[in-house]
Specification:
Helix content is 37%, strand content 18%. It is an alpha/beta fold and 516 residues long.
């Protein structure tokens, strides 16, 4: 058993909870994961049972502690990260009136679209740092007010998934600046709730939690929770930040010249800035972290989900001789590796789930362009990976347009396990990309906030010194030059199809569906 001091980081993600135990030098001692049961993956509204979150958190912590084999009384602090853009309505006794409504929920889209392009949208963005988009909880509250007035009237407070679990841990409600910013309800410049957003939502400031800086300690554990987790109830609890911030901190991307490129189901390119940075065109978002740091970046809907779409579409029809058993992501990546850069003229616009940054185009659709009889599934596979790389190029260009000069990129998410995919994105961005040795960067970043709250770190700016980096990928000059040319074609195709995207969305709305 290890008797030295240790810290606990909890990452309450969208699909699972992950926990990590680290020592005072940030070295990982143990890791655990808890899956959320009972969530219907086909649910159009994407709600989760909040009780499952608490259970998964306990399972993940117990697993991490068992593997770490540390003295339970030596914990100097724990911190929790949470997924952005979730919302949960609670009654006057803090019982849930809804499930946890996640970022993927689509019910607020029409309320957001009604504001796009108007003066209210511009004012909201300049105040909150959030482009007008239905993923933000602000618009889901507007939906509740219109479509579920009985729930809206009965709601005593609105919280994120993390706030709910945090209250179960400590008996107190509080929210860090980053998660508050991700609701669309925070004034990102003044670090207080936005009067304009509150008025639009039709709610009072008292229905939202008190705001805290992420390194702030907030009480201790409830006795029953401490017993369940197996650590002392006197363990200091640090409020922590969002999973997006933690992913950057845990990857070591803590300066404005560094970015985190994350590709999981979706994807994001994020920079931690020492000042709030807004885009006059509203292409990027800006979320407060603390009094001296802001998370600036853009997010895409179509990361790994685009590759999964191809896998799921091909699986039932692939001949057993070519693909024994179930087709996997690894099969798709292997197929992609069999053709050269540029996919021999096939260009993919991977908008299978619409578009977020930089154009926030809900009507964008997936496109394969340039197909001939000479092309096959290998070219489709390669072009999807390259198309995702071009999506990140568009985010990089948007960030450069607002004065953020990215010189180093740190990789996180599932794509970091594929050398081919890493190289493709590296070449598409024409920037070096380094993979941290510890892949669960969000959980590690959460542990760093616990260390910061305990005084074992000077500031978030020094957290990168604790991150051990692995392999660095460098652009292949001929591929980078080729992708620069293909990217120009990609942009021309996108512009040429803008009106067709709108027409396709209208057509799909009236056509019968096999999913109806």
């Amino acid at each position: 058993m290890k008797n030295g001091p240790w810290f606990l980081g909890i990452d309450l993600g969208t699909g699972s909870c992950k926990s990590v135990v680290v020592d005072e030098k940030g070295r990982v001692l143990g890791f655990g994961i808890g899956l959320y049961g009972g969530t219907d993956p086909e649910s159009r509204w994407q709600e989760q049972d909040p009780r499952n979150l608490m259970t998964a958190a306990a399972v993940s912590v117990q697993g991490a502690l068992t593997r770490a084999d540390v003295a339970r009384g030596a914990c100097l602090g724990l911190s929790m990260g949470g997924a952005l853009h979730s919302i949960l309505a609670l009654d006057s006794r803090d019982n849930p009136l809804t499930g946890v409504i996640t970022w993927a929920d689509g019910r607020g889209l029409h309320h957001a679209e009604a504001l796009r392009g108007g003066s209210t949208a511009i004012r909201l963005y300049q105040e909150t740092g959030c482009p007008v988009h239905g993923m933000y909880p602000l618009y889901k509250i507007m939906w509740l007010r219109e479509k579920r007035p009985e729930v809206f009237r009965a709601t005593h407070r609105y919280v994120t998934a993390k706030e709910y679990v945090f209250s179960q841990f400590t008996g107190q409600f509080a929210v860090d600046y980053s998660l508050a910013a991700g609701s669309g309800l925070l004034n990102a410049r003044r670090l207080r709730w936005s009067d304009s957003a509150l008025e639009l939502a039709g709610i009072r400031e008292g229905q939202l939690s008190p705001l805290l800086s992420p390194a702030a300690a907030q009480g201790s554990l409830k006795p029953d929770v401490a017993h369940r987790l197996g650590i002392p109830e006197s363990t200091p609890v640090v409020i922590g930040s969002s999973d997006a911030v933690n992913s950057s901190v845990g990857a070591g991307a803590v300066s404005a010249s560094q970015a985190t490129c994350m590709i999981g189901t979706s994807g994001a390119l994020r920079v931690i800035s020492g000042r709030p940075v807004f885009d006059e065109n509203g292409r990027t978002w800006c979320y407060a972290i603390d009094e001296k740091h802001w998370l600036v970046g853009g997010a895409i809907n179509n990361g790994g989900i685009a590759v999964s779409w191809l896998k799921d579409s091909l699986g039932p029809v692939m001949p057993p001789a070519r693909s024994p058993g179930e087709l996997s992501i690894e099969h798709i990546l292997d197929l992609a590796g069999q053709v050269p850069a540029g996919a021999e003229g096939v260009v993919c616009l991977p908008f299978f789930a619409g578009e977020r940054s930089p154009n926030w185009n809900l009507n964008a659709r997936g496109v394969f362009f340039g197909l001939t009889l000479e092309h096959d599934i290998r070219h489709l596979s390669r072009s999807i990976l390259e198309g995702i790389g071009f999506r990140f190029r568009s985010l990089q260009d948007a960030l450069a347009g607002i004065g953020l000069d990215i010189r180093q990129i740190l990789a996180s998410g599932g794509f970091a396990k594929s050398e081919l995919w890493l190289q493709i994105v590296t070449d598409a961005l024409n920037r070096e990309m380094t993979v941290p040795r510890w892949s669960e960067t969000s959980a590690l970043g959460a542990a760093f906030w616990a260390m910061l709250g305990a005084g074992c770190l000077d500031s978030i700016d020094t957290a990168g010194n604790l991150v051990e980096q692995g392999k660095t990928y460098r652009p292949i000059p001929e591929n980078a030059a080729l992708y620069n040319q293909v990217y120009t074609v990609y942009l021309k195709i996108y512009q040429a199809l803008l009106s067709a995207f709108d027409e396709a969305a209208l057509m799909q709305a009236i056509l019968p569906s096999t999913n109806a």
